[in-house]
Amino acid sequence: MFDFLMSDGVSSFLLVFGLAFFLDLIVGDPYWFPHPVIFIGKLVSYLEKGARRFVYKLSSRGPRQEKKSLISEARGLKISGLVIWIATVATTYLFAYIWSHIFDFNTYLDMGMTTLAMCTCLSTRCLASESKKIYKALDKGDVNLARKQLSYIVGRDTRDLDEGQIIRATVETVAENTVDGSLAPMFYYILGGLPMAFAYKAVNTMDSMLGYKNEKYRDLGFFPARLDDVFNYIPARLSLIFFGLASLVLAYDFKASIRVGLRDRKNHTSPNCAYPEGAVAGALGVSLGGTNVYFGQEVYKPSIGDPKKDLEPGDILRANRLLYVSSLVGLVFFSLAYLVIRAMLA
C-alpha cells in the first residue's frame, strides 16, 4: 500500500527538504555566499529604473505642453509594477526549474545541488542570528548598537527607538519573518518543488523592495504588495497553529497563543502579519504593535496581545526559540502532508 514511500521521487524529494532545512540551521546565510536574493534584488532594481523612465516619457507632455499625456503616471506605475512582478517571478521560476533539472545525469549531484538551492530559500538561522545580535547589544547596555543592528532587519526608522521599542520591533520581525523566511518557502516547496520555492522568494523580495505605502512606491508597489499578501495567505494562517504547538513544546502560554492569534488577527495593516505576531505575543504574554516611523512618515498599527508583562531583552531569545520550534513543526507537518497527498494520488 505504501510502496510509493520507497520510490526514488518521494524519498529524494523529502530528503532534499530535510537536508536543506538542517543545512540552513547549521550554516545560515554566509556573507560571502552569492545568495540568489541578491540577484533577484538587482533584477528588480534594474526593472524599476527602466519602468520609471518609460512611464515618465509616456506621462509627460513635453516641454511645450502641446501633447496630451498617453497615460497617467499613477496608472503607468501600477501597470509597471505588475509587469515587473511577472517578469521577476517568471525569470526566477525558470532559473530554478533549469537548476533542478540540469544535474539529472547524476542522482547524488542533483540532490546535492537542489539541497543547496533550497537552503538559500530558508533564513531560519540568519533571522535568529541577526536578532540575537540585538539582544547582545541590549545586554551590554549599548542601545545605539542595538538600533543599528535592528536597522538591518526592519524597514522602520530605528534612530530614536528606546529599549522597549527595540525589543518590540525585534520580536515582531522574528514573528513575521518566521513566515517569510521559513514556513512559506517550505509550503511552496511542497506545493511545487524548488521552482515554486524560488518564485515565492522573488515575490517576497519584491514586496520588501517595492511594497512600501509611501509616495514613491504607493503606485509601483501596489501589485507586488497585494500579490505578496496572496502568496502569504495560507502560510500566515498555518503559522498560528505552528506557533501554538511550539509554545506548547516550550511550555509557553499555548492557550493565549491561539486565543490572541485569532482575536487580534485583524489588528494590522497587513491581512497576514497579525496571525504570527498575535501567536507570539500571546505565547510570551506581551503586547506588540503600535505606531512606527517609515521613511519619515508615522504609520499607526493597532496593538496586538495583552501586556501581562513588560517587554524585556529575554523575549528576543524566547521569540527565537519559537522560530526554531515552529519551523521544525512546519517541516514535519509539510512532510506528512506531502506523503498523504502522494498516497492519495498513488
TrEMBL record:
Cell location: Cell membrane
Primary location group: membrane
Pathway terms, separated by semicolons: Cofactor biosynthesis; adenosylcobalamin biosynthesis
GO molecular function terms attached to this record: ABC-type vitamin B12 transporter activity; ligase activity; threonine-phosphate decarboxylase activity
Membrane topology label: Multi-pass membrane protein
Pfam families: CobD_Cbib (PF03186)
Entry keyword Ligase: yes
Keyword Transmembrane among record annotations: yes
Keywords: Cell membrane, Cobalamin biosynthesis, Ligase, Membrane, Transmembrane, Transmembrane helix
Domain of life: Bacteria
Transmembrane segments: 12-33, 77-99, 186-203, 230-252, 273-295, 322-341
GO biological process: cobalamin biosynthetic process
Stored InterPro entries: Cobalamin_biosynth_CobD/CbiB (IPR004485)
A single GO cellular-component term on record: plasma membrane
Role noted for this protein: Converts cobyric acid to cobinamide by the addition of aminopropanol on the F carboxylic group.
Stated family: Belongs to the CobD/CbiB family.
Name this protein carries in UniProt: Cobalamin biosynthesis protein CobD
Organism encoding this protein: Peptostreptococcus stomatis DSM 17678
